[in-house]
Amino acid sequence: MEVLIMAGQLILGLSILVGLHELGHLLAAKAFGMRVEQYFIGFPPKIWSTKRGETEYGVGAIPLGGFVKISGMIDESLDTEQMKAEPKPYEFRAKPAWQRLIVMLGGIIVNVIVGIMIFVFMTYKNGNTYIAAEDAKYGIVAGKLAQEIGLRTGDKIVKINGKPYERFNDITSTDVLLGTNSYYTIERNGQQEDIYIPNNLVDKLADRKSAGEFIDIAQPFKVGELVPDQPAAKAGLREGDVITSVNGKPIRFYHEFVESVKPYPNKPLTLGINRNGQSLTLNVTTTETGTIGFYPKGLLKYTTQEYTFGEALVVGTERAFQVVFDNIKGFGKIFRGEVSASKALSGPIGIAQNLFGGIWVWDRFWTVTGLLSMALAFMNALPIPALDGGHATILMYEIVSGRKPSDRFLEAAQRVGMVILLGLMAFAIFNDVFKAVF
């Protein structure tokens, strides 16, 4: 079921984004009097189509993209027969370069607008809930990767890059992890010291096997929602219970509970419980994965910052463009050799697993869709032949130089671009499968 939910979210999200992206090209082309022959969401073979006027609208069986076919344009179809005849007034090639440039940028512009709208709406709807730095009074939980750079559980991070910070999640923000020569100032046993973050740390964090092995917050907790038919519910644990010990070992923080339970899959354990001031003992047997089946409810103070629509417009726009800046930083680290492409790049399988997840949560779905919309705009803007950015680069050359590249050059560039894109797609899918299996 989880696989179907992940696939469903991915297909719906990509269909929305690709459909709107191609709609941007279509509307711009029609606005300048160009003939649009086809508008498809998904790649062939064709599942369904209908013709309205001069345009065939349809859905393809492969839901990983889409296309708009504009008369007189050398595109992924590589239909060059029409290019041998004299340009007709309604063809792409017959229009001024500035109009063709707007048509090529239409999809990117729509994706940016959609991404901003989603981020603004989610910001206005949900605000920003976080634990303030001063409320993280018990310090951090240092995972394996954090310990490798010198952090320890119980450390209090007081500064980031020499400056005080506002929110606990600023510690693992992209500005820090994708930055260069970042460092934490920690307080340990009343003394302060600086802990430097290796520039290639994000390469290790990108490894699925290292997920959750960096920094978490030391969090007192009580039992939250119980998972039906799991050991906790069967043993009589109730929502609101406070677990005080496991097999006689005192427990205060959630990470201590996990460390006491996870190493003992399929084992009987004795839990000490505080229920409304009354001390109880429960016997429970863990699952095969070393869990008992409940969601913790943290007891630290959470702060919720709400926004007016005007404020959400500003904050949401900043969050949307932060996705683009993060992509630029990420590619910079790849080119500098600080991050391996095999860990940093994901195809459709990786996106479904790592971003959407196996539970359908609408807030998360729309947040991820907004993120993908901005990422799609960024990727399409790259000056690679066959991408919108490649076409736009050639058109800007034409506008500046006053010389139009030959059809032969455009055909060759399209072929090269398609080889590059197909190679990248094959690499991303193979990489997803390899990471999922190994």
UniProtKB/TrEMBL annotation:
Family stated for the protein in its record: Belongs to the peptidase M50B family.
One cellular component term from this protein's GO annotations in UniProt: membrane
Localization terms from the record: Membrane
Segments passing through the bilayer: 6-28, 101-124, 416-434
Gene Ontology molecular function: any one: metal ion binding
The protein's name: Zinc metalloprotease
Signal peptide: none
Highest classification ranks of the organism: Bacteria, Pseudomonadati, Bacteroidota, Cytophagia, Cytophagales
Occurrences of domain PDZ (ranges): 223-288
Family matches, as SMART domains: PDZ
Any one GO BP annotation for this protein: proteolysis
EC class name: hydrolase
Cofactor field: Zn(2+)
Source organism of this protein record: Fibrisoma limi BUZ 3
